[in-house]
Request: fold
Amino acid sequence: MERLLMGPGPSNPYPEVAAALVRPVTGHLDPAFLDLLDETCERLRTVFATGNALTLPLSGTGSAGMEAAMVNLVEPGAPVVVGVNGLFGERIAEVARRAGADVVRVEAPWGEPLDPAALVGAHPAPSVIALVHAETSTGVRNDVAAVAAGKGDALVVADVVTSLGGIEVAVDEWGVDVAYSCSQKCLGAPPGLAPITVSDRARSRLVANPRSWYLDLSLIAAYVEAGGGRTYHHTAPVTMVSALHGALGAVLAEGLDTVRERHRRCGQALQDGLERLGLRLLAPEGHRLPQLTTVVVPDDLPGGASEADVRRRLLQDWGVEIGSGAGRLAGKVWRIGCMGHTARRRNVDALLAALAEVLDR
Amino acid sequence: MERLLMGPGPSNPYPEVAAALVRPVTGHLDPAFLDLLDETCERLRTVFATGNALTLPLSGTGSAGMEAAMVNLVEPGAPVVVGVNGLFGERIAEVARRAGADVVRVEAPWGEPLDPAALVGAHPAPSVIALVHAETSTGVRNDVAAVAAGKGDALVVADVVTSLGGIEVAVDEWGVDVAYSCSQKCLGAPPGLAPITVSDRARSRLVANPRSWYLDLSLIAAYVEAGGGRTYHHTAPVTMVSALHGALGAVLAEGLDTVRERHRRCGQALQDGLERLGLRLLAPEGHRLPQLTTVVVPDDLPGGASEADVRRRLLQDWGVEIGSGAGRLAGKVWRIGCMGHTARRRNVDALLAALAEVLDR
Reply:
């Protein structure tokens, strides 16, 4: 059965993506492709709300965006403050450690937001302060703007993997230096690319010869930016760039504000509906993400079912995918996404009806 | 105009790829996708000619495969012998250096093959010996089997980016420990994935906590291998995996031997035709790749045209892409690919006719 994708991603791609995927393949140096790439980068600037010249889709998934941010900004031994209140904060800390950082962790319980003041004050002179905007493991929104406002001389790295296109992300206005995302959530393309944007300030501090050659932003810039002479680095994944171009076209045709309002209304309807079913949401009100909702698995599942049984029935009988808990929340929560093209009221209604039946509520 | 892709890659995908690209997106943990992934890995084992359990498509382009091989095998300070007779050998040396290796270079002139005995004898106890099988910058085939036969206690890493599916690659028979490739050349899918295979011997020596988290093969294995519990690492690029699955299906339906024979015949026809036009091939006879031919740019281009003018005319007037020279061969050669679905006699004939007209020969 064709899937309704209401897990933590991928979401169902926008219809425009199918046509974009089968556009005939061209060379990565073909002028026709370079035009498409340039336009994709320009569309990304719009959704990131930035004028950053260095804004592009990296040739990997969202986690490659995270790794690119760290390896290009972190000199071995540099102090890096990382906010950790979920699996993806943990991941940033681990990736930064492998990049050679002296990691300073600032924690909050999983399910609670980070304290911006604690992040800003954690180290007298951090090289980087990094945090997740929309923590996909908990459904909690962290206040990136407040952290960026107090960054001082540090660079602020924001993981906007689950937020970009779903809730406001304002890279320039907030003063974020590097933000990275993915293609398969609120942007509504298949997984495989990591949009990233880098401020001029961050650019002036890029590590020379970072540990990763594949994710070396200076080398990649020389290909992506027309002014860099289109110097070959690696073969751009032309088909996926075309898909992202198509999805971004759909988002911008609808209007970024309208798309975000659609996410807001769907998320509200979903969360209201879940509470009407007597389910408890993990994230506290005021810090919830509309596009990713964590639901506490109730103790009294009918017929002695496990939480995995519930997900399996939804997938097999309704063709609806929801996500399991991740990391220390495995087995304890479900994660319900309402992202991109999937963020429609009729999908919310379908999921709630199916869940009511499976949970016998 | 739709492109005939006769550069160094991408090639034109097999027709089966279009249907595979628009297969509805599923979650990366959906049983339906995991079946497709398992089957893709099994198809890769067939084309690599290996029984290696750890055989999979990495979520990046061919260069990510190179980086994965190096960061997962090289402890900082370890001696790594690298064969360098072209741009991609240079790239291995650079990637190995960034991974912390003590790189021992064994060189041959660009356009000549490496001496296997020189590679084997370059260091008394190398940790890794790495070389490019089909050097895409020069069109030269290096003798991987001879190097692997003399490897002793070292691990042999073979870059089969341009060879896999086009000429014989026999990972197990030759004793290659790690081989990586790409999706967009002789395998006939779009660019974006890096098939890789790792012997059990190499697996027992994988670096713990390598510098790259994204390319950490131990973590990736726990997702890709059913026995690893399907532990989430990153969101698999489901659409590209489907495309590769479709392309591999086309290759195996035709038969790997038949596909390679088709590459051989097309390459021979191309090289014969180029010589009939009075053009000189860079690679010496006996070491030429059928799938990638380097042609020396003649001095006497008609009308004072530059080599770039020739490529531009082929692209604009015939819709045929050929590649420029790369690295120190920039401006000095053209690179003509005849790979995957593109490797057809009628494409060779079309290119030769167009080239004859543009070169006025």
